Input
Amino acid sequence: MENISIDTTKLSVKGQVVIPVDVRNKLHLEAGNKLFVMASEDAIILQKTNSMNEKDKITFSQKARSIARKMGLNL
Output
């Protein structure tokens, strides 16, 4: 399986989520970076991106579903 980080965070009253510092460092995330968001009924997956065309979105979706299946999640 890929090198995956798993951590917990909380949702604020404004709907904001803090990405843990070790994850931000691993992905070299900084304030203002754009993230692609994919959600199912019970899961959310984020990916760092500058912009995504339709082909990129499909590729991301397929990769996210594959990783989720390996983790026992249903996307």
Q: What stands out?
A: The two ends are 18 Å apart (CA to CA). Residues 54-70 form the longest helix (17 residues).
